[in-house]
Design a protein that fits this description.
Number of domains: 2
Radius of gyration: 25 Å
Strand content: 5-15%
Strand order of the largest sheet: 1-3-2
Structural class: alpha+beta
Number of strands: 13
Length: about 425
């Protein structure tokens, strides 16, 4: 199957570079007891951040005036914290996360119910943690907190989460619910003499597929649906029936994620538990009517096509609404200009060499980190999935150097 670029999905994969960077900075800051950190202490992360001088950190924070506030305490002593609006949004996020626990328990139960042994290694579930919206310590708060549903068992490969109770009411996939809804709608259309809905073949041609590709996908779609919650132990690898089941599981997993997307590598970790073929990425690409696999970045991202209208999610998780608010705050521009004064009357002088406010080349590696692994214990519950990317954003055009005064505190404009 030839891959076709679709800008609507590629834009989603690329648009949050700045937001992901701000989340990394916020994660570092939230490790501090009073959520206040000195620029000097931030320097401990200069290797990860790629910035080498103190003023580079200040310029970096200055790019996000709605999120971070920099305060001066004595000569050459600077600290930063969240702005009041960013702090308020973070507290709102914590409240929402605390209210989501029942939903998160349901997601874990459904994930285990789809596995062949109803048991999955905790280290594998961790790959889907941020996609599912699970807190960082979910193995303590959720896994241990609901013994009626889960138990943690020791295995030769590490601790695993095991299902203790099967719920038939949960064993219904999103696809099955959608099929039933479509059947009811079609019956209503006939009763109301409404015009015929756009058929599947026309939809596929809208994806610029060849006639042979359309025919193959149509034939695959006409095969009987296999519930991801059914027993698949007897399915033979490499068959169309097994592929039908694989697609059903991926569809259901993506339906359980906050953003209806995940990294292809995250799915590959579950080959054993869900009976996936060795070519997970190839399987996803061969079903463009259900999934879109991004073309940019070092790690491919797979989207659930039906969950999006253009670049926007059709139904949004409460966490997505928080993310959108934070994205708007990240987009607030800093103000440029010569001989300006900030809100507290401090004058700033502009001195440029290449339009960046710094010597040429100083910023080249400033944003090369995009993986949670670089921060280890700096992770927090305030994250959304981070995606590897080979084209870091350029934050540093038109950045001004900072003239440090004495004895004042101020917000960057």
């Amino acid at each position: 199957m030839k891959r076709r670029r679709e800008n609507s999905f590629e834009n989603v994969a690329q648009r949050d570079k700045r937001l992901r960077f701000v989340l990394k900075l916020r994660r570092i800051l939230l490790r501090e007891p009073d959520r206040t950190m000195s620029i000097k202490d931030l320097g401990r992360y200069k290797t990860q951040l790629g910035t080498l001088r103190k003023r580079q950190f200040v310029a970096m924070l200055k790019k996000f005036p709605a999120v971070f506030q920099v305060m001066e305490e004595g000569l050459y002593s600077l600290k930063f914290k969240l702005t009041p609006q960013a702090e308020k949004l973070y507290l709102e996020e914590l409240k929402i996360r605390s209210e989501m626990e029942e939903l998160l328990v349901m997601k874990l139960r459904k994930l285990l119910m789809m596995s062949i042994e109803k048991r999955i290694l905790l280290k594998k579930i961790t790959h889907l943690r941020t996609d599912f919206g699970l807190p960082q310590g979910f193995h303590d708060t959720i896994c241990d907190g609901y013994p009626q549903y889960f138990r943690v068992v020791a295995t030769g490969r590490g601790p695993a989460l095991e299902l203790t109770h099967w719920d038939e009411e949960l064993a219904v996939s999103v696809a099955e619910l959608s099929l039933e809804e479509n059947r009811i709608n079609e019956e209503n259309d006939l009763l109301m003499e409404r015009p015929e809905r756009l058929n599947r073949e026309k939809l596929l041609k809208g994806l610029n597929l060849s006639s042979g590709e359309v025919r193959r996908i149509m034939q695959f779609g006409d095969m009987p649906y296999i519930s991801p919650y059914s027993d698949f132990s007897s399915l033979r690898s490499g068959t169309q029936v097994n592929e039908k089941h694989d697609c059903g599981i991926v569809h259901e997993i993506l339906s359980l994620t906050v953003e209806k997307q995940t990294l292809v590598d995250n799915l590959s970790h579950f080959r054993e538990e869900f009976g996936f073929s060795q070519q997970v990425r190839g399987m996803l690409i061969s079903h463009p009517d259900m999934f879109y696999v991004s073309l940019k970045g070092e790690m491919d991202c797979v989207f659930l096509r039906e969950a999006y209208h253009g670049s926007e999610l059709i139904e949004k998780d409460p966490l997505m609404r928080i993310k959108e608010k934070l994205r708007s705050m990240v987009a607030v521009p800093h103000q440029n200009g010569a001989d300006r004064r900030d809100g507290d009357g401090l004058e700033k002088n502009v001195s440029r060499k290449d339009g960046s406010g710094e010597e040429k080349g100083e910023w080249s590696d400033a944003y090369n980190f995009v993986s949670d692994d670089r921060f280890g214990d700096c992770d927090s519950d305030d994250d959304w999935r981070d995606q590897e990317d080979d084209t870091p954003p350029n934050f540093f055009e038109d950045v001004e150097p900072l003239e440090i005064g004495q004895g004042s505190s101020f917000h960057f404009p």
